[in-house]
Amino acid sequence: MKDEKQEQACWLLLTFESKLSKRIISDIIANWCRQRSGTLQEFFSLPAQQWSGICQLDENTIAKLKHAGEKFADQIALMEQLAERGIHILTVLDGNYPRMLKSALSLPEMPPVLFYAGNVDILDLISVAIIGSRNAVEESLAFTRLAAQYLAEQGANVISGNARGVDRAAYEGATNSVGWTTVVLPEGILKLSKAHMSALQPKIASGNVLLMSQFHPNAQWTVSRAMDRNKLVTGLARVVIVAESNTQGGTWEGANGALRQSRPLYVRQSNSPALLPGNTALIELGGRPLYWPIENTEEKSSIEDVISPLLESELQKYIPTLSTQISQLLEEQRVYS
Fold it and tell me: pTM, whole model, 2 decimals?
């Protein structure tokens, strides 16, 4: 256990204290840890001059590593603080590092370290990310709650990004029943407020909620971290649902990122597509429509209202319910799992 804690402390040194680029960090992991099967404890214990020969590091990089190594005791103290709060660490070389993330990102893009609280095994379920605007309209929030609750009831793991709006609605929908959900933070895991952590703790303890962050435990929220968080949200998922998006901003970038990660992208299509230009644009880029709300033409009192949709699209009355659409989505993912 002591050796494990010291090794994890060295991962914190390399990832956060060295101030090195993602590319250099990934090169060290690839050259030393993977090719030579060395530990980071062994790496940091080497004479500095050997770093240059092993990993072709320049003087500036070596100076940064030496400076990082001086903070080893601080990382051990941080590890103890995390352990006291029930927070665990995964490194990119651990066997239970999320396999979906490995399939979505290259080594330089993968977070070398993940912090989590809860049951990490729920990521092995069919995981579905629901993303959307912080300022979504109520119709989109209602869609999100219904979709998240239905997914959870069907045994899926619902992933969201811990912001207001769609993220919050996804969490509420998933936890409305006995289901599973993963909350991915746009900040350090120790920066979550005590009130928020206390509210999550019972569901974390029961194994229904997984809390995860890729950032230093004490990192503050920033726009750039929120954007990086989106890559983790979609990368952990097998499929991504967009509730509401503009044609720019975090959700738009996250949805396009999901397409680049080769994730099936499902996008809410409402009865008024012009009100959701981002959703319409995403469908044009390859997103698959999820129709909601679904008009029931039998309840129309006006003949014009009944006939017009049929003239515009004969398929309008055959659009399946939201639960049927999501069932088909899940079945498709089970076939490919």
Answer: 0.89
